[in-house]
Amino acid sequence: MLDNPLAPPWLIRPGDANALESPLWPATAQRTPSGELAIGGVSASRLAADYGTPLYVVDEADARARAARTREAFVSAFAAHGSSATVYYASKALLTTEVARWMVEAGLRLDVASGGELAVALAAGVDPALLGLHGNNKSLAEIDRAVAAGVGTIVLDSLEEVERVADAAQRHDRTQSVRLRINSGVHAHTHEYLATAREDQKFGIPLADASDAVGAIRARPSLRFLGLHSHIGSQIFRLDGFLEAARRLLAVHAELLAGGDVPELNLGGGFGIAYVVGDAPPAIEDIATGLAEAVAGVCRELSIPMPAVAVEPGRTIVGPAGVTLYEVGTTKDVAVALDDGGSAVRRYVSVDGGMSDNARPALYGADYSVRLASRSSAVDPVLVRLAGKHCESGDIVVQADWLPGDVAAGDLVAVPATGAYCFSLASNYNYLVRPAVVAVRDGTARTLVRRETEHDLLRRDTGYNPIDQGVSE
Ligand SMILES: *Cc1c(COP(=O)(O)O)cnc(C)c1O
């Protein structure tokens, strides 16, 4: 019997376990004539030999194209209703100086959520006017630095921040544009959304307090109020949660118009991508059109002018453009008892990384997929679990997928859709060095962030003397 009762119901045994299914893989991913995976025209074995594994590989052309396509989708969808749209790239998804420049070159602005992210964006040479600063607990130093640098907008997350940012702007003799983050009571998951009076979470201020907060903003001449902001969650496939949040925000937005200008509405990010076969996220054009129609409809009902709209996607822009390469070490067939008294075998394929380079399965129970990368194989597929090398049984990269049954030590495997929230969430657990990030394009690879060395691991340790210890670079 070739099927395996341990496979989750959605995981169909593939006819061809070498196939690179759309839309999981970057645009330029393909099999070479010899059967290897290549991305951006560079083979997996070449990348592994030059940069080591694990390795984050980013399809540069794909990331740039997704950024441009997202901007175009929102600009044209809102132009069709006589309005305009601004797209911010949520940089926490994947931020290096070079990625920041790709986004700006594609016409996007950039959201940062900490002093560190701000520092990277500034180091990239991004015009500070294109930056938005987020965060529910910005330090006074972060606020001061952002205002001094001239960031375009700051998203205020609490009443205290109204005064903190106003004071900083006054000190620097600037008028700081601000948005106000609202806790809309709408929280969306992939398949449903939850709407309450106030969601039990740390971000934003309740809708009911928005009017007072905006009054406080308008009372400070050093602040310029742009509009309300809402971000309802991540990896969302359905539009209804966004529409409900927009409806709630626009009702308050309409009331605020009585007291002055409200030029904008920011609907956040959180659009979903495919991680496994069967995931069918909507096209970005359909998201943009759906949001534009809904905002236009509500504005007609409320008899208010349509505001300019801003959105902040991260995952949809870089997630599908990235792939992680690993080398297989050990494989084990583990017999698993079934409820019906029988048993089945799960093959554990262990790789040279794990939760330190991809925390999402351990953190959120996220699902991923895997394919052989250094070769193809016609051997019948077996159900595998791709495990890492950390000292945790929850250190799993891919819960379940099918790989050719001859998968063995020394093979390279590739996990798609790792462009977002993998490098960003990486750690040095077990003192593993963090992988390099390379961009591939037109047959060449370039380092965006080099691989760490043991020296990097030890350099903050005050007992470390690099002169007399044999640490490898
Ligand atoms: C994380 C975040 C985003 C981006 O979310 P994605 O799921 O990557 O699109 C946008 N806005 C805010 C406020 C966020 O915290």
From TrEMBL:
EC class of the enzyme, as a word: lyase
Give the residues the record marks as binding pyridoxal 5'-phosphate: 270, 312-315, 421
Cofactors required: pyridoxal 5'-phosphate
Among the GO biological process terms of this entry, one is: lysine biosynthetic process via diaminopimelate
Which residue intervals define the domain Orn/DAP/Arg decarboxylase 2 N-terminal in the entry?
75-318
Protein's pathway: Amino-acid biosynthesis; L-lysine biosynthesis via DAP pathway; L-lysine from DL-2,6-diaminopimelate: step 1/1
In this protein, the active site sits at 391 (proton donor)
Q: What is its EC number?
A: 4.1.1.20
Its quaternary structure? Homodimer.
Function comment: Specifically catalyzes the decarboxylation of meso-diaminopimelate (meso-DAP) to L-lysine.
Record's protein name: Diaminopimelate decarboxylase
Which organism's genome codes for this protein?
A: Microcella pacifica
